[in-house]
# Entry
Amino acid sequence: MEETISLKELFQTLRKRIWLILSLTFVAAIASGLISYLVLTPVYSSSTQLLVNQAKSEQPMYNPSEIQTNLQLINTYNVIIKSPAILELVQKELDLDTSIEALNGKITVGSQKDSQVLAITVQDPDPYMAADIANTTASVFQREITNIMSVDNVSILAKAVVKEDPTPVKPQPLLNIAIALVVGLMAGVGLSFLLEYLDNTVKSEQDIERLLELPVLGAITTMETSKKSPRMPKGKTEVRGETIES
# Structure
């Protein structure tokens, strides 16, 4: 037996369980806000920039072939910066009580397209530690790259600094709350339709027609007893115009 659901029935289902939908939505938003503000640790970001370029003393014009070579070297530098050869020295200089793997996870290296500028970004719960790791990583890499690849084409373009009032990059409470609102709303709507699908009780003549595929010829209404009239003698009740001894 094929069943079809009209748009009207969908809206009726949502309206019938509107409080369930709203409750799940607000609970999800409140939980997300509490977790974002009270549970999650704020993480700060700091970055330094390196310039990959050979020093020029005699030639006033750039050599395109050397620029292309420097751009290709950046991909190699991205790997070397996060290698144990560099990070072990950074760990030693800063006397960090963390593993190389954990330090590697805090550092992100990247460059803009067709750019000779290399950015080292560090995320840490302490903004000052993030800046120290970024600056130390840049200086160690600049010093050690001459021994690793026998090249001297890296210079520090900008050091990482900490602002007076640093703002954490994560968590983002407002974004988390917005996502929780959407997820809670979707969960409430889905749960409403699931409860409606599992509810197989017969509530109206339309349910009987849909289940039995037979027309309803008539319905018996419920006889309700009205309130006792103040003029009616005690012990008697009026039901639809008739007086019945109680």
In short: The CA atoms of residues 204 and 219 lie 10 Å apart. DSSP finds eight helices and six strands in the chain. The first helix runs from residue 7 to 16.
